[in-house]
Amino acid sequence: MMAVPTPTDHDRAALDTQAHDWLVRLTSGRATTGDAQDFRRWCARSPQHAQAMAEATRLWDLTRPAAKAVAQRMPAMDVPPRAAIAVSRPPAFGRRQFLGAALAAGAAGFLVVRPPAGLWPGLSDMTADYRTGTGEQRRVVLTDAAAVVEMNTQTSLNLARGAEGEPPVLDMLGGEAQVLLDAARRTPFTMTVGGARLVAAAASRFNVRATGGEVCVTCFAGSVELRDGERVLVAGEAQQIRYGGRREAEVARAPDLATVGAWRERVLVFDDTPLAAVVDEINRYRPGRLIVTRAELGQRKVQARLRLDELPHVETLIAVSYGAKLTSLPAGIVLLG
């Protein structure tokens, strides 16, 4: 029986460096389908490769307990803070260790499909018909659907072709987009998001945002129907429909149309918004991740108008404005305490 070669310290250090390089690339906001395929091939090269990647990705798990403000949706782990920077070395591979590495390889493949904390695009996002990366915006003209779709950051859409003579259906996997329908449309426009169906008439304009398991549909003009089973809700101009997660679907007046659509002008508007919610929104537009580590800091209210080109160094602005202490970690993770 052929023995599995034992990696030297030099080999292990090189694999650790390569694993961290992969994390940086995958969290850069510019990862492509090709990157995902190359990543999977790299992990499959040997058990040592898979183990190095599995150990490196623990960095995100180790930073989660520090972020009490977002810990409700992240599992806690009792690990010393210094371990967030260290990468443990894989031992010589006996039978049991080899099986563990095989599981690690499977876990590494899973990271492509469902990344930790959404730090890079999942496989379904990378293979979507239309996709925007972190901080990217895009305008798509759907000729067959007689619609224009303006896509915000981290948005993925698929266009499902219907049977002959039937209009296509737009499926939003996640993100945010504004849909403008041609006044000459002869049939309603249909879009699926969050497990429900949206139907809009010709000349309608509406904004759809699907993040964190919740969906918010804001109607700017015309009307939008939410069809969820036998239930139908209708939003007219300046009204919103919210649903998903633990929220019961409801129609309400939109708080401020200019604020909802400000992203189209590459601006974010916050009006008496808790800092924790502001940071969650900022994270959608910049590589890496900002994490608020003190609950009281996350509850501070923010009144601000930020241009997207200000976000790469927004942590400095937060530190100056709110006295937050900054701790920088690899792959663009910054703790705000």
TrEMBL record:
Q: Which residues form the FecR protein domain?
A: 129-225
Instruction: Name the InterPro entries on file.
Output: FecR, FecR_N, Ferrdict_sens_TM
Residue ranges of domain FecR N-terminal in the record: 18-59
Q: What would be an example GO MF term here? A: sigma factor antagonist activity
Question: What name does this protein carry?
Answer: DUF4880 domain-containing protein
